[in-house]
Amino acid sequence: MAIKLFNTTIGLALGGGAAKGVAHVGVLKALEDANVDIEYIAGTSVGAMLAALYAFNVSIETIGELSRRLTLSKVTTFKLNKTGFFSTNSLKELMLEYLGDVNIEDAKIPLAIVATDINSGEEVILTSGSVADAVCASAAIPGIYIPVVIGNRTLVDGGLVQNVPIEAVKALGAGVTIASHLSSVSHYSEPSHVLDVMRNAFEIAVSHHTQDQVADADLLIGMDLSDFSLRDNTERYDELFAIGYDSANKELAKLAWYHKTNLFLYLWRMAKELAPFKVPEVVKRITTKSDSSSV
User: Fold this and answer.
1) Residue 279 above 60 pLDDT?
2) Catalytic, out of 133, 157, 196, 218
């Protein structure tokens, strides 16, 4: 992998978390208030929906208005099928209402949406094609929602493979990654509905690999939202927004130097690459390159 010591472009990864995704709106507002320029963005599940809106320059205020009325019932259509109980048709209609029939590659900010191929188990990073279809695929929890077919792939929730899509935003070209993680603690909402039980089971299944993945973020905005519902937080919008906003500000304070000069970032990334525990890796790359040149 190439060393990107001088790549200071910032990418934002928005993780999954159903109705808890309101907290992402607070994170986006904090980043905007701090004049952090998001040059790449990726999302999984509810993070995919919000990332898509932001990538097409929908204002934070408008995203907030939508999120304020975001519930599972508003993005769910009952449609009993052999492969699921609900369709994502309502979610698709919502995306079409706010964005129209647009393609990912036309986003104002380079955008990636993560889904999982239910047949192969492969991660699928969508960077072209219908935004509405991609968001629906990324949010289609297996066993609950009917999978979404895009091209020759049958896709379900991207959380199975990359719940906080840091690698996806790196693949877009980001040199510095910020991750907004809605489930940073191993404790889950008290279930009051069968869908809560199924959603909690899904969260538990993906939590272990997610913890390993978020360790790769340059800046991790982790939140404990275990007291909030996965289905409906319309009455607690302000609380969730505030948690996202405050959590982001707390972490951004660690990068206050970013606003002064990029030189500090260059030195920091160089120090990370040349730290004692990475020296053998660096030497190996140099040696390999030298050997290749002499052939």
Assistant:
1) no
2) 157
**Predicted local distance difference test score (pLDDT) of residue 2:** 37
Q: What is the pLDDT of residue 70?
A: 76
Per-residue confidence (pLDDT) for residue 144, from 0 to 100: 87
Cα dihedral angle (135, 136, 139, 141), rounded to 10 degrees? -160
Amino acid, single-letter form, for residue 190: E
Nearest-angstrom CA–CA distance, 78 and 192: 19
Residue carrying the six token digits 């019932």: 73
**Active-site residue 157, yes or no?**
yes
Q: Of the ranges 7-16, 93-102, 178-187, 255-264, which one carries the lowest mean pLDDT score?
A: 255-264
**How big is the chain, counted in residues?**
295
Which pLDDT score is estimated for 259? 47
pLDDT higher than 70, residue 257:
no
- CA separation for the pair 228, 200 (Å, rounded): 12
Record the tokens describing residue 96, joined without a space: 């079409």
Supply 3's token pair: 């060393």
Q: Which carries the bigger pLDDT value, residue 2 or residue 194?
A: 194
